[in-house]
Protein: Trk system potassium uptake protein
Amino acid sequence: MHWSAVERILGLLLMLFSLTMLPPAVVALIYGDPGLVPFLVSSLVILFVGALAWLPVRNARHDLRTRDGFLIVVLFWTVLGITGGLPLVLSQNPEIPWTDAVFESLSGLTTTGSTVLTGIDDLPYSIRFYRQQLQWLGGMGIIVLAVAILPMLGVGGMQLYRAETPGPVKDAKLTPRIAGTAKALWYIYLGLTIACATAYWLAGMTPFDAIGHAFSTVAIGGYSTYDGSIGHFDSPLISMICVVFMLIAGINFAMHFTAWRSRSLRHYLQDTETCWFLGILATLSAVTLITLMATSYLGGWGNTWHHAVFQAVSIASTAGFTTTDFAAWPVFLPVMLLMAAFVGGCAMSTGGGIKVVRFVLLLKQGHREIIRLIHPQAQVLVKMGRRAVDERVINAVWGFFAAYIALFALMMLALMGTGLDQVTAFSAVAATITNLGPGLGQVSDHFGEINAAAKWVLMFAMLLGRLEVFTLLVLFTPAFWRR
Amino acid sequence: MHWSAVERILGLLLMLFSLTMLPPAVVALIYGDPGLVPFLVSSLVILFVGALAWLPVRNARHDLRTRDGFLIVVLFWTVLGITGGLPLVLSQNPEIPWTDAVFESLSGLTTTGSTVLTGIDDLPYSIRFYRQQLQWLGGMGIIVLAVAILPMLGVGGMQLYRAETPGPVKDAKLTPRIAGTAKALWYIYLGLTIACATAYWLAGMTPFDAIGHAFSTVAIGGYSTYDGSIGHFDSPLISMICVVFMLIAGINFAMHFTAWRSRSLRHYLQDTETCWFLGILATLSAVTLITLMATSYLGGWGNTWHHAVFQAVSIASTAGFTTTDFAAWPVFLPVMLLMAAFVGGCAMSTGGGIKVVRFVLLLKQGHREIIRLIHPQAQVLVKMGRRAVDERVINAVWGFFAAYIALFALMMLALMGTGLDQVTAFSAVAATITNLGPGLGQVSDHFGEINAAAKWVLMFAMLLGRLEVFTLLVLFTPAFWRR
Ligand SMILES: [K+]
Ligand SMILES: [K+]
Structure:
């Protein structure tokens, strides 16, 4: 482990993060709300801590290795998650305890969007802006993590996307490639945000709401500046704009990168994962629509179609926005959408869940097992598009899935141990490990009323989901820390 | 497909099955209850149908191939399940509709032990005996299925146990090996049953109860001749006898086979799966005991220890007997035990679940994935005992697990579609796919009050679980039926 290099990066990161406290401070100035001091103080404190970490090791410029990569990625989210809670703790109105502040901050940064706050409409503008911005920053971090770092680390089968790196990655140099890719992706991310904000604004949102919701839409985050979420605007047009940008943000950003460079859209339809992603969402929308119409739960077609499509896309893509109380929808709809969130978005998108590509690989591998039973001697390759998938990738995907389920079960039991009921425990873990946001039962509206211990378990679940399980899990093994 | 050979075996099977209606008829005679006519009529009808199927093809003695094996195994359970409901339908008191009769019969034969009947204490003796006998016959079928047939078919990684068959199995001859192995296993099974019945009888049960409960104990079935299950006897001694025989029946019968031939017990402790099985049950018992004591739910030590150990072993081994209303136990206990049932018994035992050996392989493979992340170039073998496990077996186990989870989710949604609530739907599928028996929520006592559609879904779940998922799934693929 190159401790000093890790410390240097973390110090830089904190100093950079301290700057992100300034836009909310500006918002506080504009609206004359009480958030000005907390955000300025937080900015200075975080800058100071960052500088304190950075100064003694500012010349430690080792090339980073695989292990350092795991550590940095985990520290990135945990340290920013904790320090991100600072302005919330410092704000006097409302008074937010540490656990809640860190929960809200981590839930924002991991783009989970589970909230412990209520009465969001009445919060100071600066805090309402800050929450949205946390999601946007988190989304940005995820894109870089997913596209530039995870494939190098080989987590959960993501070496599938390591086309450019021939040979094994042991001790491959991580640093140079990240910078180049990251820059291009940030431009795309920024462009999408601007387009989304403009569309919201043209559809009738105030600039404040438009920017705020654009932040949480492209991040597939789900935070809103209102308790009523997207439902607050009561506008099918705004709902559909949101759907379009959730779809775009749920697709592999490497596809957008290609679209940007080649000025073509054809490759989207040639991509297996994109087709599955859109196909799954279309199917879910149709099933939701048909069930709602059959039960007349929302009345006629006019009031049903946009809620059905919006909630299907919002939950299954793991955005977690709501236009209506979908958790009370009839028969299997809430549970079905929650299960769909386990599939989630595409790899290298801001979406959560186990990712569509892994789901497709699991299906194809399951199919191969059946063929092998019938024709024991047949050699069957699992393919994505035209390329055969390496057995090692398939093994990693299986491992990912099994670890996901096992940890899910353990965390659900832990939550029940803190006193939650079965439905709440199940859906709370589901909503956080998939980085979806809203749950069912006691946590369908917000996570404010559950106990502190349960909140910490759920924060761990958010991190697990966002860090593709193994990035975090690996730190808990003795082998990782052995020289 | 050798249709005529399949038909011949099925006809023989039915004729043999018709004989199993005679013992309950004898019981009806002894106790002078109204079951005599239904069982005699059923016996004749089944004999007639069997003969009708057998006569035209009685000379069709083809060697059976792999595909025929899948078909026969599935038909074995479905046809016996359906015809096994006949005496229940024919009995006038109580009146049992077809769906319930088939559910009860299939639940017996698959050793699931979920019941739709209430007031079991007041049923005719013949029916009470018949239910227990169904489980015993089912358990016998499972042992043969698991030890002799599944390894040949290579279902769900069970080729792990195909030590004696060198080379690929395509079109391997199934017939000769089954007979020899089956005979030895039946002796062991019979011996265990006699030992168990004797122990129960010495502990105070009537001969009727002792034989009945011995039947369902060695089959890890869970049916009882009383609504109160083992709790009816209110005897810690009987509970502990039951625990001992559930443990024995939950261990790989090939281990007992070795013990019988080598007159030694040492190999049990050298077997990875047995050690894990016993270790898991010990851990669960301890956690259950500590939690119950900490919450004082059952009062002091004297009333707690035997309920704790009994329910932990009974649920986690998937027997499903109860001595108390464990579904109402505090905090996470009911859900934890239900989750433990997913691990279940050892391979080639009468226990259900995904089987301990698969669970251990999943853990080991998960651990390997973590080591690979840290040391990307390392070659890590997954071992059971001292033997490296073939990658193909590992793939099959992954496939099994993923299919299990996916089908679980689909069936849970289907149940909610029929109107069940989330907790009931979850635990009903869990209790049937693991062949456990009792669930939580609306189905913690019995399955009588849920709708008929839900019952058929659950019957499918029982079959899936009992047939190790893929044996049944493979029949739904076009590739299986293609020439
Ligand atoms: K989200
Ligand atoms: K059972």
User: Anything to note?
Assistant: Residues B 111-113, 220-222, 318-320, 435-437 surround potassium ion (ligand 2) (CB under 6 Å). The first helix of chain A runs from residue 3 to 19. Chain A touches chain B through 58 residues (CB under 8 Å).
